[in-house]
Amino acid sequence: MSAVRKGPSLSLKAREAITGWLFVSPILTGFLIFFVGPLIAVFYYSTTEWNLLSQQSRFVGMANYVDALTRNETFWDVLVNSLVFAAGLVPLNMAMALGLALALSKSRPGAVFFRTVFFAPVITSAVAWAIIWTFLLQHESGAVNQGLSIFGIDGPNWLHEPDWAMVSVIFTRVLKTVGLNMILYIAALQSIPRDYDEAARIEGASNWEIFRRITWPLLAPTTLVIMVITVVGSLKVFDHIYLMTGGGPQNGTMVLAFYIYEQGFKFFNTGYAAALAVVLFALILLLTIVQMLLKAARK
Amino acid sequence: MNYRTQQKITRICWIVGLCALAIPFVFPFLWMLSGALKGQADVFASSSLVPAKVHWSNFSDVFAYQPFARQYFNSLYIAIVVTVSTLFISSMAGYALARLRFGGSAFILLVLVSALMMPEEVTIIPNFFLMKELGLMNSHMPLILLPLFGSQGVMATFLMRQYFLALPKELEEAGRMDGLTRFGVFFKIALPLSKPALSAVSIITFLFSWNLFLEPLVFVNDIELFTLPLALANFTDTYGLPLWHLQLAATALAVIPMLIVYVLAQRQIVESFAMSGVKG
């Protein structure tokens, strides 16, 4: 033991510090190289312009940002699309998740079966889910429109009309991810002590009153977490767009994450794409800060 | 109407409503199977869910169209490598950040946490040039390194830290009394106690890697090096039109084993995700 060790022995405190640094060094090293470094670099790239012919980049200052904000009309479309996507997806996703959680949180026979069903798309790859739905949403022969025709409804060409394409992508994305939020809500509901419920019922409170005055306020921290996760998730949606619409038709579903990919890796506008990535970074950072403030305000 | 019948009616409404809601969750999988078993000509021609004639040959054609077995293996081994490495790295870092006192630990934690939600799209462009510089383009290394050290690895670290914080300290202190070093306490006491967190990290990391799409798309070119999601997106004829029967057969081959594992281990899988959300 240390007391009988020969030679200069380090103090316990120093040894603990060395062990600590040793333990965090693998992830810290990798994190600096593959995350922090690139994060700094993306700001630098956003001030350059890459020339495909000469294979060189030159400094252009804020030109890429000015380009995006003033000259490039697509940028504003993309920003609006991203907001429309989030505004459509987040409330629908959360309302559905909460509804399902309320229906399935108590252990009735069948509850586990339905939970399994609603969660299944979460573990299915987004690529597979998007492929299947692209198949189902084909214009004349797709299963969705075939189904609608039974009721005499002439379904639209879902993925080839700008507005319907946006609706389709939002809807299929909600189906893909709602199970996760449902599970988070169920976990939160099950942690609410039963006595609250029972006491209120003895007092003669209706189901709605119990929900409004007890359940909903107690769920607030969970709702906040879910909201932030879902908003961030909606801003980074890529697979669905790539596979179902390719950003089209007429840029109708061109959202920020997909636009970055297209500008960066299809058209090789590296500088411009980097500036877009900075915009995405700023949006997510803003959301993170808002979440922290809300959390702090609650305490 | 007495209380009994009212209860019964509520219950029936409950089941009918949930069944209706379940349609868009269940039918896609059934149509995937149905399309996978139809011939190229009648994928759309017949509107019935049950194929007129079952084309088992679709499945073998998938392997003839591209090196699908190889691609399947790629996805599997990459996911395993990412998962095992993440377990090592994140549990060590998580333990240090939860239990060991050392200068800078609070700052490290803050930096890591602020990266928790950053999507890979933000850093993908510089990472592209970095991988080029390192000579790792068109290889599987980026698909291993980026999840390991990006927000996914950070999430795993954070999850492990939260779990270690909740463990009672006494057992570890007893281990120290018995003369174990910090390494010994970590490997012999803390790690065996944290099996639930380790399995949660494994499940989430495996699925994350298995479903990764943007990184393979950006970093991998050779069809031999494709992962499953890339392979699935790659079934088109010479005109660029989708070969639905093959694409759906391949999708079924990729999805069904996962669904079987999910149904068998659904409790554990669902709990893992609940844990990640609650902690994150």
UniProtKB/TrEMBL annotation, chain A:
GO BP term, pick one: transmembrane transport
GO CC terms: plasma membrane
Family: Belongs to the binding-protein-dependent transport system permease family.
PANTHER family listed in its UniProt record: ABC TRANSPORTER PERMEASE PROTEIN (PTHR30193), INNER MEMBRANE ABC TRANSPORTER PERMEASE PROTEIN YCJO (PTHR30193:SF37)
Membrane topology: Multi-pass membrane protein
The keyword Cell membrane belongs to this UniProt entry's keyword annotation: yes
Name recorded for this polypeptide: Sugar ABC transporter permease
CDD domains membership: TM_PBP2 (cd06261)
UniProt keywords, alphabetically: Cell membrane, Membrane, Transmembrane, Transmembrane helix, Transport
Record Pfam families: BPD_transp_1
Chain segments annotated as transmembrane: 21-45, 83-104, 116-136, 164-187, 216-235, 273-294
Domain ABC transmembrane type-1 span(s) in chain numbering: 79-291
Localization per record: Cell membrane
Automatic annotation (TrEMBL), chain B:
UniProt KW keywords: ATP-binding, Cell membrane, Membrane, Nucleotide-binding, Transmembrane, Transmembrane helix, Transport
Main subcellular localisation: membrane
Membrane topology field: Multi-pass membrane protein
Transmembrane segments: 12-33, 76-98, 105-129, 141-164, 185-210, 244-265
A Gene Ontology cellular-component term: plasma membrane
Sequence ranges assigned to domain ABC transmembrane type-1 in this UniProt record: 72-265
Signal peptide (residue range): none
Family to which this protein belongs: Belongs to the binding-protein-dependent transport system permease family.
Name of the protein in its database record: Sugar ABC transporter ATP-binding protein
Organism: Thalassospira profundimaris
